[in-house]
Amino acid sequence: MKQHAVRTHPSADRLPRQEQLAWSFAEVAADPVEVEPAVVEMIGNRIIDNAAVAAASIARHPAVVARAQAVAHPAAPGATVLGLAPGRGFSPEWAAWANGVAVRELDFHDTFLAAEYSHPGDNIPPVLAVAQHARRSGRDLVRGIATGYEIQVDLARGMCLHEHKIDHIAHLGPSAAAGIGTALGLSPAVIFQAVGQALHTTTTTRQSRKGEISSWKAYAPAFAGKMAVEAVDRAMRGETSPTPIYEGEDGVIAWLLSGPGHVYEIGLPGPGEPKRAILDTYTKEHSAEYQSQALIDLARRMGPAVGDTSRVRSIVIHTSHHTHVVIGTGANDPQKSDPTASRETLDHSITYIFAVALQDGAWHHERSYAPDRAARPDTVALWRTITTAEDPAWTRRYHAVEPAEQAFGGRVVVTLDDGTVIEDELAVADAHPLGARPFARPQYVDKFRTLADGVVAAGEQDRFLAAVGELADLPAGELHRLTVTVTADRLGDTPATSRGIF
Q: Domain named MmgE/PrpD N-terminal: which ranges (predicted)?
């Protein structure tokens, strides 16, 4: 990896574009290096993973609305929209929008946690949509997706956004633009301009994940993907971007991040170095914020020892700073303790999640969030006994560089009404690459089969999985096979959702 020191420069410096971070991204994207077999396999896994969670959310209101908006923008040849027949083509930016919302709605696909949070699978909808519309090949697609993952993961390692209350999609806009550039075989000069435009239009605040969390949480990454598609389109037509976008004296670092005195170190692959970042990412077994994954598994393990939860006097979850202040009581969000809170809010409440997982010994993407489940009196009583506390040791492990040292879980101390103390801890989720049951292709297929059951016909499931099996060898113009179709009665469409401006 080549390290890039990135800081603010006065306009008088006239910083050459070859010394700008956006140009470095463009060079990585344009590098013709081939994708390694293990990376191709993992890209296939994540395409399956995205389709799985999209199938489960296909009739949920945000996905239905986004799809209705996309349907208003047909195009030829166009890109596919999940749920609809592959013969129907739609403008790629709107297909990326609809598919991005469907993938993101349940907060149930892949993740990478470092200095910044990320869901790098959000790169797939925009890269795939453009590749379909442009009639590219499977090889082009995997190269583009590998770039998207690489840029977003490398940014997440080196540049923290949330400490400045900037949402993580500010890393997704540039990564998706770079990935599209790779898939289309664009020059560094064009990709450079697209990256700058995509970043400029996707720097938003973290209020979308704070307090009362709304359905925009699902739309935000889709918005970044849509902006990336539009940015590439403009750059291909010769339009330019704010420059230097990161390093300018009125740029992102100077005013949105750590300021003119700060230097960020961003590691990127050098010329000819394979893009392997996707191999450092991990998916979710449970539909909840990633930092709750290991704690759900721990709750399931501790349940038999705790027994009757009415005897619980207190539960303290000792965990990392990120978990404590984002989904724990350190967030100081009363909404996280409200039984009438939105699903999106409960998804970001580890106190709620741990209570339900402890009582049920399981977690389900719908039943665990049902209003009657959240309002159950015994659950509310248990929920109110749970607090989180930052533990420096868990914070250090959260930020560890070595994968074997990284930890995204915590230690739980349960005190019963007779003073009995029950303690246990878990560093990583069972599905994590270093967990008890790491996900590989069979687990991704099982997740897809489970979530698609009753939504996608068995024969259609088989057809889709067979197409993914041929991923890198799919001929140009055959990428429309990488979607799933469902019958109209499963789409959740209503007259109300089809009404809007267009």
A: 19-260
191 is written with which tokens? 């990709």
**Cβ atoms of residues 269 and 227 within 8 Å:** no
Q: How remote is the C-alpha of 141 from its chain's centroid?
A: 19
- Quick one: which of 482, 419, 453 has its CA closest to 56? 453
Total domains in the chain come to 2
Q: What is the extent of the structural domain holding 317?
A: 290-426
CA dihedral 36, 116, 65, 493 (to 10 degrees): 60
Q: Can you read off the two tokens belonging to residue 308?
A: 């009757």
DSSP 8-state class, residue 349: -
Instruction: Spell out the SS3 assignment of 386-406.
Output: EEEEECHHHHHHHCCCCCCCC
Assess if residue 65 is contained within a domain: yes
pLDDT averaged over 10-residue windows placed end to end, the chain, 502 residues:
97 96 98 98 98 97 96 97 97 98 96 94 98 98 98 97 96 98 98 98 92 89 98 98 98 97 98 97 95 97 98 98 95 95 94 98 96 98 98 95 90 98 98 96 98 98 98 98 97 86 90
User: Which of 267, 268, 269, 245 minimizes the C-alpha distance to 257?
Assistant: 245
Q: DSSP labels for 43-98? A: HHHHHHHHHHHHHHHTTSHHHHHHHHHHHTSEEEEEE--TBS-TT--E-HHHHHHH
Q: Are 194 and 181 in contact (CB under 8 A)?
A: yes
| DSSP string across 309-338 | GGGEEEEEEEE-HHHHHHTSGGG--GGGG-
